[in-house]
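Tokens in:
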């Protein structure tokens, strides 16, 4: 029996021992169930953030204001989170079960946190607040 076969057998034995531990199986099941329920509660807000007119207007307005300031506004989707960067400024739009939270920061320090409603809130005022605020 070669070294790699022996190592493979040892790994399989360890994995089967872990799978047989009923407490670990129960904890894993509860964790997956909690993650699934949280994702289901966030789902409508994720959908609103990704597909609403608010988001496209916000991106357009941020680019327009940034252009006037000679600042490139970059945006990136990280999972369900929309992150916008403009030099030292950052805004993250994070969906949660309660709604969408906008976190504004400068040089890595949080300056403001607010909950937004894409149906009601004005994307222009949020963009101005982020890019021209203190």
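Residues out:
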């Amino acid at each position: 029996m070669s070294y790699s076969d022996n190592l493979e057998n040892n790994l399989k034995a360890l994995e089967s021992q872990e799978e047989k531990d009923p407490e670990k199986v129960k904890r894993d099941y509860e964790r997956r169930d909690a993650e699934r329920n949280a994702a289901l509660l966030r789902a409508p807000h994720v959908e609103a953030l990704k597909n609403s007119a608010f988001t496209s207007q916000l991106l357009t307005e941020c680019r327009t204001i940034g252009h006037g300031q000679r600042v490139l506004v970059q945006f990136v989707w990280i999972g369900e989170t929309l992150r916008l960067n403009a030099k030292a400024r950052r805004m993250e739009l994070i969906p949660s079960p309660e709604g969408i939270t906008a976190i504004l920061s400068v040089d890595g320090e949080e300056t403001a946190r607010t909950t937004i409603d894409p149906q009601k809130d004005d994307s222009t005022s949020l963009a101005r607040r982020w890019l021209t605020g203190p």
